From TrEMBL:
Pfam families: HATPase_c, HisKA. This is histidine kinase. It is an enzyme of class 2 (transferase). PANTHER family: SENSOR HISTIDINE KINASE GLRK, TWO-COMPONENT HISTIDINE KINASE. It catalyses: ATP + protein L-histidine = ADP + protein N-phospho-L-histidine. GO terms for molecular function: kinase activity. Residues 184-396 form the Histidine kinase domain. Gene3D superfamilies: 1.10.287.130, Histidine kinase-like ATPase, C-terminal domain.
Amino acid sequence: MSETDYTGPFPPVDTMAMIPVILRLVKQTTGLRFSAVARVTADQWVAYAVDDSVRLDIKPGDERVVHETLCNEVRLRRRSLASGAGMRELANGPYEPENHIPQDRLQSHISVPIITSTGLFVGTLCGLDPEPQVFNDTSVIETLELFAQLLASHLELHTQLNDSQSELGVAEETGRLREEFVAVLGHDLRTPISAVRLSAELLQARVEEQHSRKLVDAIHSSTLRMSALIEDVLDFTRCRLGAKFVINLSRVDNLFEALTPVIAEIRHAHPKADVVYRFGAARPVRCDFGRISQLVSNLLSNAVHHGAPGGPILINGHVEDDSMVLSFSNEGAAIHADQIDLLFKPFTRAEGENKSAGLGLGLYICSQIAESHGGELHVHSDDRHTVFTVRLPLLVESVEPMPA
């Protein structure tokens, strides 16, 4: 096979809707009663698509001896050729090979090369007829050559589309395997980190020397941070693999009050932060309290890290219409408008933020927790303050019918 021959696959004929139309137009233009698209190489001639009105017994997939075809000469010369009565003035000059067309069967034959934009020879667009067809109009060949160019372009588009889909499939599979690997890795890291954390907690109760105590506290703090990062990665991986957050719903009569210990933990971890928690009367909600605690902890930690150092952080809880609302407000630089839409995307950090601060998954996970509860998470930022607002649906109490 020549290095200039097309070696790629042909798409299924039924995906090339234009081919039957072109074959019909070839017959109408030439007057020949058989037309075909053939794949031609140095070794074989194979019919790819056929429109046969004279029953030449050539069907798609059938082969002919390539060296006995005019199409082989077209492949070698890379130009259109015609043979038969009335065709000697066509195709850039007469060409009538001695052994290529059995004269007892075919009296007329036109063959036009199909060549890609990169110069690869694909095959031929050809017309045949057992009877001589007389015409001397060179525009016939020009029209068929235009059809051949159209076929080559269409084939290239199909090839590019198939290549893109294959690459996309490989990329998706690679991404899926990568995320599964991260999930397994995160799961396996839980055990040794838990062992280190428990050991640090035991040492905290026994070590009294000041310097050693600081080292133990640092180890304990690091294990807590690593555990939080692993949980974020596992949550993210579940979402990316198509699974929703595991939500175990239960009735919570006063969510505002129940969150007080969670906020106290953040206060304890950041003693310099000025955190104020205010809430009004609550109404029952159905929620996964562990997940809501995770959401509150992430949003409050976000306010501590990105708010003005030592500036006030106000958490406000109230009921509004059919929703329970929690807002987290902090002073500090405004979030740029072009970053607002990206805040809840995974691996997104605030501009200029130190990469060691985290993976950029916290706000993404918060948004997923809110959505999994049928709620929503929004942010508003201006020169004065930034406010993250969570809305959760209230529990709709069933009403028992009054006795008759």
